[in-house]
Amino acid sequence: MFESLPSYRGRYRFEPAFDDLRTIDFKAGPVAIKVPKRSSGERMTPGLPFLLEDLLAIVPEPRVIFWQVRHPLDAICSLRPGITADWSHNPKPPDWMEWQKRPVIMQCARHWQHINETGYRAVRDIAAVMHYEDLVCDPHYFARQVCDKAGIDMIDHAEGIEAWAARVGNAKSPDSYEAKRQTHWSRQDHTTRVERWRENMSPEDVEMVRPVVETAARLHGYDLPERVSA
Length: 230
What we know:
Layout: E1 12-14, E2 32-34, H1 52-58, E3 65-69, H2 72-84, H3 96-99, H4 104-123, E4 127-131, H5 132-137, H6 139-150, H7 158-167, H8 197-200, H9 203-219
């Protein structure tokens, strides 16, 4: 969304190397950053792809940390291509190599749980939780939440917000919007983004991952199905 807002043009960083944050002139205007990342093997706060104290030291106040979360079953389906590719997603849980001996959906579940339980607990007192389901099903509501928390005037940015909202949605099709620079993980094996698990997971799959994700699911207000129709 930030790329569509005039005041953030040229001021949005997509998954930059963490040390690149030190080169940003934060006094020159607002900046939006999507998940800065350390290299594998560097010190990180468990569940985060960087050391939290370093981030807080570099990015000055006022700042807002948005924590975007997605229903675990849908997230598991989305994670599959990257996890299958030798667990390409970060931050990896410390026991990720042991989990590679298990079915891929279990690996995806462990990845989601590590981030949204361990990682989230590190920032829960300073982060604003945003739900992916709001983004794709009600982008205007989602935009209001972001603008309210970040102090962005929606009227001044109405044109950019409208353009962004017109590109997002719950329907999945070959010509639908995808997160920029992440299309290589996209698969055309589902028709909707929310509850895609109903198309991509079997009842046995759901029961297999339930013990892994149920605590973090409750933490973020998500329900898991008691029984899944085949």
